[in-house]
């Protein structure tokens, strides 16, 4: 049967150093996964179970190494924030995955930015409404190439940082994540059947802040290099 309207293209993120594309299925995100960030958001960082939200797969903006990615400043906000995050790429699906087996489901890792309309998020949260328009807008998920776990290992510690126009803003360590990658995959698979192509943005450390047009963000994670994104 023919399509009634034009079919959307498959969203892909290149695999680092290879002529291969990782086809993106879903984008999940973890909320408040670093204690100091939870506190700066006015939340109690007690180790309650992780919570999740989602972005549409076509919110991805691929940032190639050595280039400057372009993040168009979104509509309907005057307080759009950066959140530098480790992204987990799922290579093998499953549900109710045990923590001890969870890393077997990870294809690799990438640098990511969970861009956020912070003003709308606060209003929606206070009104008990869904976060979608605060988190799931167009271009809200810049991402670098996906590095195979086979090549870079599984990431449990190492620096994660972000600078804004050269000034240090976020500086933490993956070891400070409240929920590890394995624990996050295990929890998430209790709510959704994971499948190859899923991405998980694992939460941001403290130091989030606003951007304006003309800003340049530079983020990095030990073992994954750096990427640069311009706010346009
Ligand atoms: Mn986030």
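^ structure tokens above, recovered residues below v
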């Amino acid at each position: 049967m023919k399509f009634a309207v034009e079919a959307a293209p498959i969203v892909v993120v290149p695999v680092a150093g290879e002529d291969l594309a990782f086809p993106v299925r879903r984008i999940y995100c973890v909320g408040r996964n670093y204690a100091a960030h939870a506190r700066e958001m006015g939340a109690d960082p007690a180790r309650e179970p992780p919570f999740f939200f989602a972005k549409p797969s076509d919110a991805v903006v691929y940032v190639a190494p050595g280039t400057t990615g372009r993040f168009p400043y979104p509509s309907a906000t005057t307080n759009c924030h950066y959140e530098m995050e480790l992204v987990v790429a799922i290579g093998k699906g499953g549900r109710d995955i045990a923590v001890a087996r969870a890393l077997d489901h990870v294809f690799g890792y990438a640098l990511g930015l969970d861009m956020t309309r912070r003003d709308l998020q606060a209003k929606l949260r206070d009104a008990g409404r869904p976060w979608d328009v605060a988190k799931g807008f167009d271009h809200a998920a810049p991402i670098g190439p996906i590095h195979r776990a086979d090549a870079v290992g599984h990431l449990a510690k190492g620096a994660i940082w972000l600078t804004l126009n050269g000034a240090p803003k976020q500086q933490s360590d993956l070891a400070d994540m409240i929920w590890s990658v394995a624990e996050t995959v295990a929890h998430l698979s209790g709510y959704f059947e994971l499948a190859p192509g899923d991405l998980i943005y694992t939460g941001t450390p403290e130091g989030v802040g606003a951007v304006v047009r003309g800003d340049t963000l530079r983020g990095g994670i030990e073992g994954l290099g750096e990427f640069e994104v311009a706010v346009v």
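The pocket of manganese (II) ion is lined by residues 29, 83, 85, 114, 201, 203-204 (CB under 6 Å).
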